[in-house]
Amino acid sequence: MSTQNTRKQTIPIIDLDKISQEDELLPVVRSILLYTDTFLLKNYANKSSLDSLISHLNDSNNAPDTKQQFDANFTGTLSINNDISMEQYIYNSEPDLQFNRTVNNPYLQKLSSRLFKVSLFFSQLCLKSIVQNTTLQNTLSETNFATKLTRYHHERGNLEKVSVNGEDFQYLFNHDFINHTSAGILTVFPIAKGIKYKPPTASIDDNQWTSIDEPDCLLFHTGTLLSTLSNGLHSTSPIQIDPSTNPIHLTIFPPLSTPLNGNKKVSAELLSQQIKEFPQVAEKFYNKQSHQLILQQKLNLYKRLFTTSETILSLNSMSRVSNIAPELHSLLPQMSNMMNFKIVQDDFLKLLTIWPQAYIIEANSKCELAIKLPQIDPLMALSNKSRKLQFAEMCDLWYLNHYDLDVVPKDVPPLKVNKRRGSIDNDNMDVSSPSYQTKRIQSPTKQKNYIHNKKEQFIYKEKQHDSQSNLLDRLRERERRSAALLSERQRKYQEFLSVKMSQVFKILISLNWNEPYTVTHLTELIADSLQNSNNPIGEYEAEEIIDKLQSLLSDQISCIVVEGGLKVYKWDQLKSDKFESALNEFKEKAHETNIHMDV
């Protein structure tokens, strides 16, 4: 076994030329699965045959039949976008559970047969490596199995060709990755290219991916079923697939009626994964199950949010000097940073819908919502269960009360709070929920300020008639204030773009240099990458930032306009120190310009 470094990450490689006997593979596979969920296979004897079959399938004559839509079994053909279509077939060896649609393309049949043989061999090794139950180890054989074959077809290929000044060149077009979670034992990809996986050191929630570019190797990725059968010895994570580069993969399962923990079967595991991967199809055929899965995902998110809120509020209560409760909107950025996800006020109020007594929510003198932890008796705290466990039980109870309704909700509704303060004599503030009332914060001065009208308000002074010059002066003053306000807004907007320029530069420097990229591809990529940041940007702002970077680094970043007005960017190897110096110079010039405008 050897290793390969990809962006300072390590992916295991099994080199078959260095393996003399099959028995040597078992300890190698076991050591890999205890460390990661992805590995490569090098020097596979039939690799050239697989590549030849894939090249035939990429031909337009072997395109999938787009008229064959997805059915309730998630088999058939599905259009991903205007250029990419997907076909999928599921086979089960058991006669009681068969699927009507079968593979008719001869090239796809041969490719599926060869992928099945190699995936069956390594799947059996995986089961023997980390599954201790011998019965479960023997659930997979040449006669007892199930497979899911997925194929993507790109109508126009990976690259688009354009002509500029008589010179032809190609640029990446619609280079989007699709999230994929394998539900089986093992998934095999005949081309180890156009795939991103999570390194072992990264959390599942982190937006951290490692690219794989080894077209001479096969790639194997473990599924959630293997993780379940291992009883905690192995864990797996999602991967990302570029359908235009990596068109085919095959996933292998035990027979679909094989029982798992409890009353669940392999078929239920596969159905759950397909509902998550194809929500549009699930809405049509499995509406209730689809809503149940979405609700489960939301409740899992709120469990994480509650843990984050507990941490932030506890730290806040220890660090502040006064007893004034912090305003909710001031805590949201901290929650977003810890969650790596944009958290808004409604997300927090959904926690109170699940558990109304979790926090004390108050309206302060500014009519802003303020949050603080409830008072807990120390003696009760010693005997009671933890708040995190209590909230988890509340989430499970909320799900049990709603999952079997005629219309299953997709999300928890936020608690509706009336921010308007009541009269001074009333210490309670109305909330739509009858079981919960929020308290307003007492005024720092305990003096009662009764509402009354002063007599001076009803004594009107004689209106003085302004002269023509006074009217002109007021108009000039109003125009000057409007111009100053507009200038201030423009200055703040430019400062915002300057901050985002550093983030966009990091995205550009992570891409392959000396390759052309369309403005459409770059703006979509940048907007998607920054959508979970505290201040996300749209495609219009992304294009403006790219143009600014191109003007700052014109000797490194080039831009040409092809037919139809489409911008295509290309850059040499970018250097951070040169960008920092150019950005500082740009900020200094902008600062001098603002001073001159103010004068």
Automatic annotation (TrEMBL):
Give the matching InterPro entries.
Cdt1_C, Cdt1_C_WH_dom_sf
Taken from the UniProt entry, a GO cellular component term is: nuclear pre-replicative complex
Which stretches of sequence are listed as region Disordered? 418-446
Tagged with keyword Cell cycle: yes
Check the record and name the Gene3D superfamilies matching this protein: DNA replication factor Cdt1, C-terminal WH domain
Coiled-coil stretches, from where to where?
none
Q: Pinpoint the DNA replication factor Cdt1 C-terminal domain residues.
A: 470-561
Stated family: Belongs to the Cdt1 family.
The root-end lineage is: Eukaryota, Fungi, Dikarya, Ascomycota, Saccharomycotina
- What's a GO biological-process term for it? double-strand break repair via break-induced replication
Q: Name the UniProt key words of this record, in alphabetical order.
A: Cell cycle
Q: Which gene encodes it?
A: NDAI0G04740
Give the protein's recorded name: DNA replication factor Cdt1 C-terminal domain-containing protein
Q: Name one GO molecular function term.
A: DNA replication origin binding
List all Polar residues biased stretches. Answer: 425-446
Do you know which Pfam families this protein is assigned to?
A: CDT1_C
The reply to whether Cell cycle figures as a keyword in the UniProt entry is: yes
